[in-house]
Amino acid sequence: DIIKSMFTHSYDSYMYNAYPASELKPLSCGPGKFDLVKLQALTLIDTLDTFVVMGNYTEFARAVERIRQLDKGLKPGDGNAKDPNAWKHQPGGLLFAVDVEVSVFETNIRVLGGLLSAHQLAVAHAEDKVLERDVWDEYGNVRLGSSPDLEEEGDKLLDNIITAGKQPPSYWSYDGVLLRLARDLGRRLLPAFQTPTGIPYGTVNLVRGIPQGETPVASLAGGGTLSLEMELLSRLTGDPSFGQAAKLASRAIWMRRSGDLDLLGKHIDVKSGKWTETLSGIGSNSDSFYEYLIKHYTLFPDDDDFWTMFVNAYDGVHSNSRLGDWYTDVDMFRGLKGSFNKEVFESLMAFYPGMQILIGELTPSAQTLNSFFLAREFLGFLPERFHFGRWSVDNGGGRHPLRPELLESCYFLHLASGGFNYDASLGSNSMKTQTTSGWLWAADFALHALHSLTRTDCGFAVIDQVSPHTSGLIGSLFLSKEETAQKKHMDQGVALVDEMPSYFLSETLKYLFLTFDENNILHSDSERDWIFTTEAHPIHYVPPVDVNDHNRVADFSIKVQSKKRKGNDKYCDDFKMQRLESRVISFLESGISRPELLQTDYSREVWSKKTDMDSYQSNIQHVHDGMTQKKQKRLVEK
């Protein structure tokens, strides 16, 4: 309930004080902006799927209709009492037809990912959940504010109508509008990929394409965190160009890793393919590249080369940039033998333990996350940069921008370890399954720290500087449960910044909510395996595009749903079996090699002048053979 109230407070503050601006200023209670994505309703789009995850289908339906109206150029209050449905017949296409430059990376993960996730959730879970009268008023305006609850007052209304023999009211119905918007946005992002290497520019103009004088330097994360959303868009629309472009970018980057250490730099020239920054690590400008290699294979096992790329990159990080339970930036050609290794932890690195859970690496994941939590305990919140050698905030890195990565890993560790809790009452050799874990307590601490120190009258705000003498006192306050002078000192010492990033609603609060909601629809869905994008947008598997089928149904998910309505579950059963057979299992059980892989038909992909198919295929095969040899050697040693 606390998390729901935090979400409602943040969302209502945005809607009443900032919408349709991209973000909210929580201190001045006004509209804010996110310079990397200058688009209307960024926070609303990024937050769509959180409504479904939290069970607020009414506000989800309203949000979808608000986005539809923005696409038609309508503003709140433009309804017509004489013809409330008149606006529905107006042409759309205006939401993304704006002459602005946007970050390809941020637009992909926040906007495209938000639309695709909400589309799949709407198809899977939003049918017959909301009455039309709860979405629109009598003028055709989308309602704002509280409405009768469907399960209580709505059910009573239906009973009365049935008793009276009247026609039941109409339910709001989802018609695929979010997918149409996603396809429009995807087409506007595609010009960024027109480079000699296939690695995209970092910025694109949504009307004009590549901006004049745009730098050819792109980050590792910026070029390699696109394949989940773009491949899903291809599979939902039947247009393979989106996925082909994004997959080529990931492959092109991976091919340019350091030969001996298998490390990747942080910035690369998209024209020449040469690294412009050879610093390598799992933090800023790099993090989600590694995440998307394993998640792409997990979600789309048809692209089995992504497994080989991931294992190779994972091994490079594990062998050449790990310091105990921590990770550090190193030179991609020298590794830990380099001269400028920094014992600095970046808050973005906190995603890594959660990613390790996907491959069954529970023990190293837990060890690393425990180390990260030690810094959190010391300071109350994770700073952007923490020097674990000196055990202090790194110079200029004390801000806490409400990031989700620590809570993301905490959520996955809780799910993975919840059944392995020792119960002393049953004896030293007894175990029993429990829904609690130490990670649940860690999440509870984070929840109350956020609620106590970052809440404002208009949302939640970024902390400017964490310190053991201010924010770090929050732990002792919880332990004592007393309102003392210490609390006053802490409040006065914690300065806030007038920013509330959209990811606070789409990621931070979502991961917290899921950690405590064991019966959530994402946990109980027996028909789909949901996986989170790097922006915490849940998406599920869709079969690959048949490039020879020009009559493919544009919306595959609706096609599946229609089959289910007819009582034909065979397709869904086959789909579930395919996913179960291709799950990624622990490295400890499988070794690293998977010799049954390498079935991808690369001739169906699109290749560039400087990233050709033969070189890539040879590269993948070489790495795969090396992995197989290592596995055989380990077996012989055993």
SSE layout and pairings?
Layout: H1 2-17, E1 23-25, E2 30-32, H2 42-53, H3 57-71, E3 101-103, H4 104-125, H5 150-164, H6 177-189, E4 203-205, E5 217-219, H7 220-224, H8 227-237, H9 241-255, E6 267-269, E7 275-277, E8 279-280, H10 287-299, H11 305-320, E9 322-323, E10 326-327, E11 330-331, E12 344-346, H12 352-357, H13 362-379, E13 385-387, E14 392-393, H14 405-417, E15 421-422, E16 431-432, H15 438-453, E17 455-456, E18 459-460, E19 462-463, H16 474-480, H17 485-493, E20 496-497, H18 503-516, H19 521-524, E21 530-532, E22 538-540, H20 556-565, H21 570-581, H22 587-590, H23 613-637
Brief sketch in words of this structure:
The chain is built from 23 helices and 22 strands. By secondary structure, it is mostly helical.
Describe the structure.
About 45% of the residues lie in helices and about 10% in strands. The protein is built from 23 helices and 22 strands. Helix 4 packs antiparallel against helix 6 (about 175-190) and helix 4 (about 105-125) crosses helix 8 (about 225-235).
Distance between the termini: 52 Å
Work out the helix count.
Answer: 23
Give the class from helix and strand content and strand pairing. Answer: mainly alpha
How many beta-strand elements? Answer: 22
Largest sheet, strands/sense/barrel? 3 strands, antiparallel
List keywords for this structure.
638 residues; mainly alpha; three-stranded antiparallel β-sheet; 23 helices
